[in-house]
Write a structure and sequence with these properties.
Number of helices: 2
Number of strands: 0
Largest sheet: none
Helix content: over 70%
Number of domains: 1
Strand content: under 5%
Structural class: mainly alpha
Low-confidence stretches: none
């Protein structure tokens, strides 16, 4: 069994002299357990309260992120559509340029 050291003021030590310390500890153990349990519940209650206070802020940030992500998706879709439109337009312009070049080549050959 591990060793436990208890430091007491001199007056308290004198009052305990000659008493059965093991029985005294066993007698007070349930009170100590209750006290520790109450302290733990209080600490956990404070943590829960702090988390509950932070929850609306986190929910707000989450909603902002959803909105940002939604906008980013819409922007991406727009950009992809615009890129495809520009590719088609570029394809048409190249085709027209090639036709003009051929016409100019025919004109210069004649």
């Amino acid at each position: 069994m591990n060793e436990i050291r208890i430091v007491l003021p001199c007056e308290k030590f004198k009052s305990l002299k000659g008493r059965d310390l093991e029985a005294l500890i066993k007698e007070h153990l349930p009170k100590v357990e209750e006290m520790l349990k109450a302290e733990r519940e209080e600490i956990l209650g404070e943590k829960v309260k702090a988390l509950e206070e932070k929850l609306p802020e986190m929910e707000s940030e989450l909603e902002e992120l959803r909105e940002f992500y939604g906008k980013a998706l819409r922007d991406r879709e727009f950009m992809v559509a615009e890129r495809n439109r520009l590719r088609e337009e570029n394809k048409e312009l190249r085709k027209q340029l090639e036709e003009k070049k051929k016409e100019l080549e025919k004109f210069h050959k004649s």
